[in-house]
Amino acid sequence: MAKNKTTKTKKSSLTDVQNQIAQISNAPMLKDDVRATRSDRPEYAKYFASRPSSHKPLSTKETLKLFASADASIARLIDHRKQRELNIFISCSNLDFVLERSLINADVFPYLREVGKALGIVVNLPCDLSLTPAYFKNVHAIESLRNAEIKRCRETSVGFSYIQLFGQSYGPNVLPTLIPAHAFDDIMCVMEENEHIEEVVLFTKWYHLDNNAAPPQYKLQPINTFIQDYISADKEKHEAAEQQWLETVEKLETALTIATTHYLDSDWRETYQTSELHSEFKQGILSQSPAVNGKVSLAFVREFDSIDLNLPLSLNFADLKEETSKDAGGSKVFLRHTVDTSKRARLDDLKSRLSNSNTKTFTNKLPSPSVLVSNPPDPYLQNFLDTLCDSLVNSLIAAAPNSEREPTPLEADVAAHVEIATSHGNYFFPTATLLDEVSNVVDYLDNRENTSPLYIHGPKGIGKTSFMSHILKEINDVKESNCCVMIRFIGAGHSTTSGIELLSSLCEQMISTIATIDKSFEPVELPHTAEEMSSVFPKTLALFSARKTNLVILIDGCDELQTTSSDSSLLFSWIPSILPRGIKLILSSDSVCPLHKQLISISNSQVIELHPWSEADASRFIKAKLKDRGRTINEAQSSYISECLSPFCTPLVAQLIMYEAGSWPSYLESIESIPIRNQSDSLIDKMLDKLEGKHGAIIIRATFGYLFYSVEGGLSTNELLDVLSLDDKLLNMLEKVLPPDCLKLQRRFPSVVLRRILQDCVGILEDRSTADGTIVWGFSHNQIKAAVGRRTKTMEATLRSNLADYFSGRYSDGKPLAPNAEPIPRYVDTQKLINHQGNANIRMIMELPHHLIALKEWKRLGRFLSDLNVLDVLGHRGTRRSLLRPGTARAMLLNLWSIWENETSMDVSVMYMKSFSVWQKETTPSLRDSNRRMKSIAVFLKDLGSENSKMRYFDKAREIFDLLLSREIKEFGEHHPAVESTRRMLESCVANLRGRATKGKTLTKLRKGSVGMRRDSSIVTPMKKNKQDGVVSPALSKRIDDSPIVLSPIKMEGEGEDSVEDEIERVMLEESYGQGISVSFNAAVVEGTMNGKPQDSYFFSKKEESL
């Protein structure tokens, strides 16, 4: 009989974990692509088909009327935004549910994400704590992370927030990482009284008193403090160190058992002698309050009739203890494994509490663990997945927004900016100097004779955003009933990404408020161009003032408008130098921005400058905020911080130091090594260095880099997990620190790693909303974002490429590890442009084209933009199935096509007609659908011609409208509404062709001839001179009817390669179409310029021809 050293932790060794995962990873059920089939099964496809389609997007006019209604309160909107997530914690401490958890992630949650999209609920993937890397275990991060995750899910999730998986294993007891000081002293006291001196010495070695915690507590030290090889990259050294740690844990647990079993009451054992399963149960089920709005827990109990303890697969399905005997030499000899009855009793006690808790329980009885890997798969697995999926889907349906409509873009804007103000207002710290400045702002608001804007400025990190947020709070606290307040943070929301969007958002809110005040007021559609909006804003202010209602507008971060706005000509030209009576405008900006002097001029020197804090104020802020977080610092640490703060510092520096000092225990000796300095940039770099040292430079730079290069200011948790899961370089690096072979079950970035990073980034990252209401992670301050940009500059191409691949859905069915290899499922979002309910994927539309532009992938960009569904979503008058304003969508599509056209010199109309032809072949549409698509294309081409002064797009649009008109007359008759609509479109297009004014293009001069008029019929042919042989060849021929016209010589400068030719074409079309005119030129030679250089001469010759 073999001899073995007895150890209670044998089944938690690396070898057993590896064997367990290896066997489970070959389970037939896991090999099937179950994810791809669930939505195709009729019983699950019904969840899409039975839901009514989302409400059709509203016009601006309808939006303003709805926003003015009483039910559209800001509080309701903010609550609506918060109640849109399903966050579930799945108990995952033991290895007996490895297969079920893997199948849940592979099958159930990808399907739930699609259902959630149809219901307007974001389904976040669960955090799997079983995939914990060694460096997490080294600092005992699992307990705090688990408690934080359970709390987060309970507070933020709709429907179920916790799933308990019960097998027949209670699991090994785990050491508490934190023990209150009074409890620790009691434990040590009883052990000393009973002469357990060795155990006392061991405990005081591994647990240190932290007086910086409130109340004080003893903290378990990192493993590598005394076992340095625990985080070694050398596998043998690490395994030896882990075994040494397991032996240490056994001694510490034995000492705790002695104390809690023999000398203390049972409550102590319940607190300090529990397994991870027990801890999760207490946090997830026993700590829950009674169900509110259907929020309950789920529990699945699985029991086997028999477990063969001699099979390696069975070792993790029951709590075992070893029976031993002694041989002749006195050594222990292993006899057999037996079930640990004491742990089984504790597990049965937990199961018995389910009936008294707010938990829905399902029980399954199986013959043995071998059914989990049987071939074909046992029906239990499919039934388990279906039961779980049905429960969660029903929970989603019950929790879906029951309002008749989703928030409009305006409502989402207002709610997002109010949330930002609420969040940043918490950072306002009332120093004497700041309170004086608040008083100055109040005086400005009370002074009705002051008609100038107020300008607030200061250096970066001075606290302008928190100051503006506090001003909003002050105004709301004291404002009268006839006073309205509006706030915008430039660069922080989708309504402030450009000047026109900022003005549109403010004007819409003002008009909606006017409609509330004046019931006779009829809201009007707002224009979509920068020039028009710059004149509309002051007019809207005047309309508001005429209603004798006070209005305060706060705009923070005006320096950001210069970098984010494409409307550079619009910058602040819309701000009137004299505000209408009752209107107050408060602006804030960085003191060193190029617009600083302009803003001072606009405000007529009505300026408030914010100054850095004194060392005393900064110290008071740090200590006050630490107290709010249940922390403090000792005298030595306080002195060190004071030296670093002296003599002055910005609030940003004080805030970052506060977050850093919050992690200092009182026993920390090397204070000088803490990376803090008075300069914010240096401090930010040091904090990023610390994060990279903790989690790895590759992981941190990739995570932050994806956030930095995202277009809408960040990525959601799911998006970040998905795009990280497509980064094989990152996953290959993680394989070295994760439990062996765990990525064989699922090749995905472990959610537990991302959750830990987010937990460590408090103060660095914050959540915010995007155009479609998605909550994303972004940087809390522009200085932090700039520091990340410097670090990730060399990774830009790779990061953008991965983002483009993700948002295009390129690897939604799997990504191979090498070229020509079989794709491996990554279980990422499918990224459908139009979902089951006909709603647009706004995240895809906002992100993908910009990454393709940065990567110069013009073919992919052209294919994407010419997709007719994109035209439906973004087209000016198409079927818009999005949360974007029509003006925003139109401007975006026009801008993207302009960039593509400039880079490729290809024709947009050709791309659309190709897509139209493919669509017709693939879908065989009805005549009505075909006409609708054609009309969308024609309208957009007309808009594109108007935007870019390309007359060929006007002409193409006219051709399509001509064809549509003949089709519709044939189908509906002459006076059908559809015919009248198309006729109006055609007339509008013709009017543009006739009346298109010359803009930005001129002819340098006319010489060697003159421009005249003749009444005879003719065909006028512009002739382009061939430089090599002097031959004049036809370039364009247009038919012109007999009618008089006056052509005036026009001075013109070329803007591009086609400047002169386009202008000639414009003149010909403009003056000929439908006018019945005759034009002739007597050897007129026109010279143009391109980029300041002479262009070919154009000869106009008259050719007589009878019409």
From TrEMBL:
UniProtKB keywords: Repeat, WD repeat
Domain NACHT residue range list: 454-624
Domain NWD1/2-like winged helix-turn-helix positions: 682-797
One matching Pfam family: WHD_NWD1
Family matches, as InterPro entries: NACHT-WD_repeat (IPR052752), NACHT_NTPase (IPR007111), NWD1/2-like_WH (IPR057588), P-loop_NTPase (IPR027417)
Gene3D superfamilies: P-loop containing nucleotide triphosphate hydrolases
Protein name in the entry: NACHT domain-containing protein
Source organism per UniProt: Triparma retinervis
